[in-house]
Amino acid sequence: MAGAEDLLFHDVTFTIFTGPTISSDEEQRLIHLLTKDGATYIPRNEDGSIDGVKRHTHIVTGDIEFPEYSRALDYNVHVVRPSWVETSYEKGRQTQPRQHSPDPSMFFREVIVSCADLPEGDKDAIIAGTLALGGLYSAPLTKLVTHVVAMDMHNDKCRTIQAKNLACKIVLPHWYDDCLKLGKLINEGPYLLPDPEILRPNFDEPVRARSTPGLDGALSAVAGAPPAYNPPISPSDSRKQLVVFKEKKVLFSKDLNINDHLAKTLRHLVSQAGGSLTANVEECDVYIGHYRDGMDYVAASRAEKTVGNLSWFYNVINRNKWTNPLSKLLHYPVPRGGIPGFADMRISLSNYSGEARIYLENLCKEAGAEFTKTMKQDNTHLITAHTHSEKCDAAQEWNIEIVNHLWLEESYAKCSVQPLTHKRYTHFPPRTNLSEIVGQTPIDISRVRKLYFAAKEKTIKDAEPGQKTPHPFRGAVRAPDTSPRKGGLAVSSATAGGRSSFTAKEAETETDPMDIDNDDNDASEFLPHGPQTAKKRKTRVGSDAAITTPAMLSRHQDRETSPPTTGRASKEKALNSLHALKDDLALYQREMKRKGGVIHGGRRTAEPEEAPAATTTKTAKTTRNKRKSDDMGDSHAEISETEIAGVKGSKAKKAKTEAGSKILYTMMVTGDERWLGNMKKEASEAAKLRALGIKLTAEPAECTLLCAPRILRTKKFIAALANSPRVVNISYLDTALSKNTLPDIESHLLEDDEAEERLGFLMDEALERGEANANRLLHGWTIFVTEKVSGKFETYKEIITINGGTAVPYKGRANVISGPRVPPSEDGDAGAEVDNQGGDGELDRVYLISSTSDEEVKLWEKFETEARKKGLEPRIVKTDWLINLAMSQRVEWDEKWELKEELVPGWNK
């Protein structure tokens, strides 16, 4: 007979939280599975709380919304989903609990992935990333697999899924890549094989918004009307109906501006939910306040009480379910005066609707920015769910920053403006409306702690005694008069304490000075239960420094750019003890730093920032096998007036620096097809070059060594010259690979006399000018480009940007052209590039780069008229003007580059 220790769950002591994902029947089934194999079950208390967290080894739940979650992590109690029980039982051993975590930051937690005929590098990256972010990997196709990642349907796993009609999704690797770029789980629909939307000809069309489950009850930090209060028949019936605050003491801050009537309602709600009021911050379990300041807020936060706002309180009462106020940005007290850096911003929204739009509007206001329903040229930012709208077009023309909502959410969560250089804030996956992931960002409590309540480490128990305990609602502001005033202004009393939907600052100015309560008011109706005489506090938080907030310490803003945490201080300590995580994380980080990510081979030399847009319904396999290698799929063809292969530019991720191998050169290869369709060879030779000190890149801005068979008019070659790299013949690469040593650069310098004569510049002189210009040849210039120009706008934007200019798409809108350019000597930023900018005559000129299609020619007259209104000389030019400028590294004029209507064959107005 087997001993107790031979049973599968002999060392498990557990409880289970029921909810939307765990029904009562499911609870009984899980209890049976665990206990029959040796586990010990501890029932929860009558009010749903856990009796002695540290007695448990596991808590089975579908989410982390229970009060004891932080303490469970402190005691290293495993919080797992029911899948941990199922998987352990199926495998006959206890599986890793972290792979079954309900923590929403582990966004692959519901994913069990299998791969089908993927390159080895892609497969390794997908496996490591899935494990590190809470998912599971299965080599064979089992009934538990939720996603199969494949490039096409021509493999056994996909055929089996189709034949047996299995409930398993077959997705392109692009879905996985976009999830990682955003740090969120997005809908798989556009990536589903056999006919993925992102590979259809019309993949570029706008997408309707889906539901936003992350916003449940968290649209605003300003509470609306309180939940309806129905007096219970008896206290026992009350607790059966509403027990979410059972045996908890709640403190309401006076900054809530609570009036007498609302105070009475709140007392009844707390009492009905099984709790009681207190005025002593040391005694309270829950602190409810509006702002992140004041002695009580600091004391409650330092003592790790539950801290939320009135909006959170109402949401918990309405749902009769505990939630963590840190999990929703607008359920936590707001910063008085907003987040430093937002005050001068004017933000507009596009492509968000319904609850998502209301939430983002409120978030803008709480951050301290000015929100505008309409967008004008003085707007600073446009937050959009995708880039298909008139506002997005106008923002491009007006040079307004275009970002997704993650920038706003993470700036608010981290208490500082996040840099727009983070690619996740400007990433818009095709056929995806990002409103579906609105509201999933939690408060970063570690950043809040640093700024708002970590001035001193003194705890409540260390504070000085002697201060009287204030009344829980004393000093509150009565509800403003709602009767009509002059001008028709009235404030709704339905909001908390008379708060309206306008800002807190406005609310304060609307409050009648005569409405302030005095200490003699009769408060017996809403005193906490027990003696009505206010107790003396045992403690007092010390000096003013203890409650210093960013309003006084804005100069100390932390500028870290780490990803947002889950918003739980105690979780950080618990994660440090999960040693089993480090192997998977190391593998994941190693694979993700490989060139190519997960959609172009995990061992590629470079990774495109976005998947190349497919223009036909080719199969994924055809797309994979026929990808371009010369310029990583975006600029293999030379740029000419009639034929330009300029698709979206590629971006190279930072290469992993190997120990003891210093990077001597960052090489970009163009015009060579040695790796075309052969990713294994590419990966092998890239590793060999890296060992020699050469890092391959697809990013012109990183290039210090440009390798090509001749002078080319590819986008990469042209853009790289702004960096003034050493330019070598392809023989340099051949020699390095064949001899496994670094050749002498001087012996392999690129020489192409024929191209220099044809293009009208000398390479040596251009490189010297490029070094002097230091990527600032077009500094201060705004160059307009027609949207339909041959080679696409993005091609010329990259060339203009790397040379220090601003590229703006021109669509014929008015007021997009500013006045004459400011001379460099006046803007205090003059440099050597001034000598190469064409002289003072260029200050009064403005350029439009165009082709000669009818659609583009129609714009010329509008451009010329608008330019002359601003006192500028308009010049409409061929793309060759910019190409010559970028290759020679100087601005010069030749009439052969000018476009005129009379020179366009067959053109009729």
TrEMBL record:
Region (Disordered): 461-574, 600-652, 820-841
Record field: compositional bias (Acidic residues): 509-523
Pfam families recorded: BRCT, PTCB-BRCT, RTT107_BRCT_5
Biased composition (Low complexity): 611-620
Superkingdom of this protein's organism: Eukaryota
Entry GO terms, CC: Cul8-RING ubiquitin ligase complex; nucleus
Signal peptide interval: none
Alphabetical list of Gene3D superfamilies matching this protein: BRCT domain (3.40.50.10190)
Family annotation (SUPFAM superfamilies): BRCT domain
InterPro entries to which the protein is assigned, alphabetical: BRCT_dom, BRCT_dom_sf, CellCycle_DNARepair_Reg
Protein name: BRCT domain-containing protein
Domain BRCT: 4-102, 102-193, 342-414
GO biological process, one term: double-strand break repair
Biased composition range(s): Basic and acidic residues: 628-639
PROSITE patterns: BRCT
Compositional bias annotation for Polar residues: 492-503
